[in-house]
Amino acid sequence: MVNRRMTISRKASSRPRLAALLFRLGRGARSLLRARWPDGVTMRQIRAIDLAPGRPLLICDVDEVTLHFIRGFEAWLAEQDLYLAPDSWSIEGNVRRMKDGKALSTPVVRALVERFFKERIHDLDPIAGAAESLADLEQAGAQIVLLTNLPHAYHEPRRRNLLRHGFPWPLVTNSGPKGPAVRALAAKVQAPCAFIDDHAEFLESAGRHVPSAGLVHFLHDARFARHAACPAHPHVRVHDWRAAHAHVSHLLGRPQKVARQVRPAARR
What we know:
Elements: H1 4-25, H2 27-34, H3 40-47, E1 57-60, H4 69-79, E2 82-84, E3 95-97, H5 106-120, H6 130-139, E4 143-149, H7 155-164, E5 171-174, H8 179-186, E6 193-197, H9 200-209, E7 214-218, H10 222-225, E8 236-238, H11 241-251
Parallel strand pairs: 1-4, 1-6, 4-5, 6-7, 7-8
Antiparallel strand pairs: 2-3
């Protein structure tokens, strides 16, 4: 027979050891655990969205899927005598000075991105076909939610920018992996769910948290698309909204001719 007092004692004593272990592992490990759930602000935004349980749901990214982030960022960089080199997928390491091509350090690039948000987040152009495709999908019965990784402080200027270009759907701001937010949104319906994003890691996160979700990898800028990783979960890769519309229609219950589905290569 197990000694109940000893069992309780072991459980209690394990808690400080676990806390100490997490502290020693550092902020990265603690962030990884928190990434299982969206933060409080994101969850409040999700709870406020009224979704019909029986209608399919499309969760759609914003930057480089509905709005031209890179185009706006490049125009703004040019005003600072800087440019973005398409040498890899990341912005960091690719912002260079026009006068000598020297790459700026990561802290400087991050500060520039923050300045760009403050100055231009309200003034990005729409990607061709995005608003029309989403409106058509909604007309066909889909519910639309826009999910963007953006500091919560910029929720309102981003919402105004989207409204001005014909994107009236609910907007959720998020940080870190998107899978937890996709899971929280998908849990509000008992119908097919699809997720569109340009980042492979966010699609992978969604695939882990919602295995039944249809995943669409949207890469419209060929300069950077050639560097993009391939998500580990079954997905389709598209380069414009005509193809995205067709595939989402198929995923959400309106069969059409769609792009060939991409599956990860078998590991040897």
